[in-house]
Amino acid sequence: MEQKLYDQFGLSEKVIALANQAEQQVKEQFAEVEKRCEVNTLKVLNAFQKNHISEIHFSSTTGYGYSDIGRDTIEKVFAEVLQAEDSLVRSQFISGTHALTVALFAMLRPNDTLLSIAGKPYDTLDEVIGIVPNQSSLKAYGVSYEQIDLLDNDFDYEAIKKRLSQKNVKLVEIQRSRGYALRKSITLDKIKKVIETIRQVNSEVIIMVDNCYGEFVETTEPTQIGADIMVGSLIKNLGGGIAPNGAYIAGKKELVELAAERLTAPGLGKEVGPTLGINKSILQGLFFAPSVVASSLKTAIFASKLLENLGYQVQPRYDEKRSDIVQTIEFGAPEKLIKYCQGIQMGSPIDSQSIPEPWDMPGYTDQVIMAAGAFTQGSSIELSCDGPIRPPYIAFMQGGLTYQYGKLGVMKAVEQIMSK
Ligand SMILES: *Cc1c(COP(=O)(O)O)cnc(C)c1O
Fold first, then answer.
1. What is the domain partition of the chain in residue ranges?
2. What one-character-per-residue DSSP string does 239-281 give?
């Protein structure tokens, strides 16, 4: 009977045996993930209780959205969980890129310099910054951009110190997750160390962390260790697979206010923004988020071990410390990358009958293949896998609302790359 179910899903005995072997080999790592999950769960539960969350906070506003008690309380809860002074949690943010854009335009003015100290930022920021020309970029408004590359997966502390003892840098950007780059995610220990280094020479510069994919992976967040402002997406970690869209900005009160005045209008700030029925979903998403992030991490650790056993280069390895939910697998050739992504799609609950193909996606430089059979379009806290079609043909996989769905999706993808 059981065997029939696996047959129906299209898994061979060989892949099932390989998967169970890999799962046995990662028991210790799974236990560590569960432990961190409990700590993050406590953070959420304490924040709900401290803010007396009750049914009234599930109510909603329309129109201008004045006096939305649910929205205002959600922002207190997020601030509490992230140990930030304040937060802006809005469905009017279209995406993580939009929230990062709002934050950058809110804090940078003509003749200022934006300094990225973790190499080139995420691909979708190229046109925002003006690395790729755009008439509405920061560069077009007179904001210049400089970058200091990572050295051996760590910050170039000397170069950072030297540049920040000179003038004009208004904002330092640190991207925690690896994005589409061949580097590791940056652990909170390292972020803490670099913030301390920056503060030795410069007390004024705004330190902003792109926290996308990072929330609840460790048990501390950047705003707890001295970052001034931090940005993330709600169709990633903190949305818990429940939030229908949106993003957040959290940090110093005056910086959150600047961001609010950029998102809405000067003089309006945080006071407006209708919630149109999503307050309960935002709260419920945050409630599930620690567990969903843990499921994503277990899916990633499992895939890492299984594909390593099959001879592929993976990053991170199953027993390495993680600071984001992204798992990469190097395929070395476009066909296997495409097949793996197609297998992830075939293993999804939604749109499993669609076959993804590489396409020219707005905001990205190379063709990209994306597998996402998700309840929420584009959600990458749900099991999803994508990769730019460029050597060395790396799949970037993330998400998994539950570990079992994640595991089965990965098995289905492995089945595809193993079949002729
Ligand atoms: C996802 C992500 C973003 C923003 O992406 P959106 O798709 O616009 O939400 C920015 N930076 C990093 C590191 C990301 O992972």
1. 2-41+287-418, 59-280
2. GTTT--S-EEEEE-HHHHHHHHHHHS-TTTGGG----TT-HHH
